[in-house]
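Cross-check.
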Amino acid sequence: MTESDQLPRTVLVVGSGGREHALATAIARDPAVQQVHCAPGNPGTALFATNHPLDIDDGAAVAALARELAVDLVVIGPEAPLVDGVADRVRAAGIPVFGPDAAAARLEGSKAFAKEVMAAAGIPTAAARVCTTIEQTAAALDGFGAPYVVKDDGLAAGKGVVVTDDRDAALAHAQACGQVVIEEYLDGPEVSLFAVTDGTTVLPLQPAQDFKRAYDDDQGPNTGGMGAYTPLDWAPGGLVDETVRTVIQPAVDELRRRGTPFVGLVYAGLALTSKGLRVVEFNARFGDPETQPLLSLLRSPLGQVLYAAATGTLADQPPLVFADGYAVGVVLAAEGYPEAPVKGGVIDGLAQVLVEQPGRVFLAGVGTADGELVASGGRVLAVTGSGPDLDSARTEAYTLLSRLDLPGGFHRTDIAARTAAGELTID
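Predicted model, tokenized:
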């Protein structure tokens, strides 16, 4: 087999959101990649890739499409199909796939399982109790005290966590979830660190920070994320190396020891507390919206990197390379998000911006109706800006966002603002 035979010339990206739009965009930049397919994709990916209608939770259908297209690599974006075992079906068909099997994806699919892995691997994290009854929950809340941290044990699209001083609200959230994890509150700023892995080798990206609350000044309910930026000048030196050494590599090693090697993207949500680094959560896929600004700066050939992970050859890859400067992503959300987003609103200006500014706007919840681009989800899209400093990157992102209009839509105006002003520092 020649070296060219080991390159991912045709890639299928599974999913339809902003993360998948960003992944497909970055993969299409890889000089080795000749064709990008998306299933189902969105109106943005249709501008440079071939979209295919598909039920992404149907593993057999995903594998069949990958065979039909003769793809070299399948990249599964969202968490639900990973937890449901779609990667297992694709892998069983003999097709390289970037994404963990169902057993390994439990790292995100069950917070109780993630705590079990962390305990076995000696990974620093918040003290926690798994609760299945309201009596257990009440006792755990009283044991840890306010602020109360209540996490749905299963998948909840980024909205299963409540952090509140209101004990009644914490109890109500727990009752609505079923099994929950009650944790001690972690102080300090949070950081997202992604790492590509083939189950043995770990290749980290640069850190990013996202903004979970719906409104400015971290007010309002938790969401799937309202914006993000990278890099983090204020983060301690050596943070990436420390996180790989004490968090990500031990988790990867523990899963391999259990006979369920993790092949894909490990997302470590970290808190830089007064007592040191602690893990807030693990995810089993690229995070949204951090992926958009991160990949806009990535200069390594993403298709080849993901293919190396999928084929167990990641140790042959050099460290990832990012462009100098900064990138900021800002999410436009539909009216009523996250509780009851209003769908169907026409997004004026979007069609023109997608053509004029390729690779700058990533669609998350956008569909078509009567020839118009309309909101079809809570988080509608994310715009990205880049520049030599955070101020210029913020200005570029918000200037681009000002060209779009969604009736009732809203966005945070303070993404990366404190950092740009020098107000966020670590002692």
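Residues 239-257 form the longest helix (19 residues). The first strand starts at residue 10 and ends at 15. Passed to J.P. for a second look.
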